[in-house]
Amino acid sequence: MPSTNVKAPPQPDAALSHGLKQRHLSMIALGGVIGAGLFVGSGAGIAAAGPSIVLAYALSGVLVMLVMRMLGEMSAAYPSSGSFSAHAERAIGPWAGFTAGWSFWVLLCTAVGLEGIGAAKIVTGWLPGTPEWVWVALFMVVFCGANLAAVRNFGEFEFWFAALKVGAITLFLVLGVLAVAGVLPGTDSPGTSHLTDFLPHGGQGLVVGLLASVFAYGGLETVTIAAAESENPVQGVARAVRTAMWRIAVFYIGSMAVVVTLVPWNAPEVVTRGPYVAALDRLGIPGAGQLMNVVVLVALLSAMNANIYGSSRIAYSLVERGHGPKALGRVSGGVPRRAVLASCVFGFLCVVLSYWRPDDVFPWLLNMIGAVILVVWIIIAVSQLRLRRRLEREAPERLTVRMRAYPYLTWVALAGMAGVLVLMARQPETRVQLYSTGGMTLVLAAAGLLWQRARGRS
Description:
mainly alpha, 0% strand, 73% helix, disordered N terminus
């Protein structure tokens, strides 16, 4: 049975250091919302949905904001590097924490490999003839070394990565708004001419765009994991969650609106070169393609660094709660170094599989993690429903961050997640991902239940 003791003060992970400063956490929260998915994956969504991609990002953005509010409420009450996995264990039971934690660990480790491959492709475009795997290995060694040394190294990398991403997207938005308004020198405003065909492929195109937008928001959970190693975990989580709404609105929805206003949705370069490069080319900015390649490279490296950090802390928390091999829980210098190494090795193994078995094993792995984020969000919502009632009854002083209109908005979020699952089941491209993720989740849940019963008997 999950624990009902909520009267003791919240205890962050004692063995980990608290080397993240508030400036690190603030910039991680700010930059974490600007992921590689926004720069790389949004072109296919625009091609499918047309100008209605703005509506798709707005709808999925509302869902993400509700999830972040729920997660923030629990993380402020119970700061932990295990984040939603620890909350699920407390609210539902050890098997739920086991399932959420290890499925998310597989997702993050696989993403580390994918981001390394994406970054290597950009560099080999600048330096043709150099092997991709060498660059992937170099990036892996750099970020693995940074995460092995001290948590402040991760914080410094993310601080400057986030600063570059925020600066780039802000400059893009400023130039785009000036161009749309017709006050950018040398550029004629397109007005609303590119927005007239709002739903070029009807509702089906909007659905495809909606599914693409949902998965572009991945990475927001890192700030609640990092908060446990900050100087003031509760304050850091509260500040990050409370500013999530305007960050999502400005960076995602705002930039999509600028892109589809400046560039025809069916322009080939939106997919081939990326929507941001296409928009900057329309503004006649020289070297726009290479400039955005640098920004995308930074976004990929930032995500790689954050995912190594997040996966290692999730693994450490799982082991601390008795859900994995004790060897991974060893901490030295305030860092779970074995968990960092295990996450990096798994990530590099994914890279090896992409070269060795690109037609069977690697696609199977990608399908298996395709809908993990939705599984995690559902577990977050169910956990918040249960923990909120318990906190209001036994420790209301811990509710420094509150989910608005509880429990109604939580149920609205769950209905939205169920709707996304139904849409995935109806689309041939995403149906395989849904079923593969479902299979992995069931296997992990069964393993978690067996583990829970074995521990109960012992």
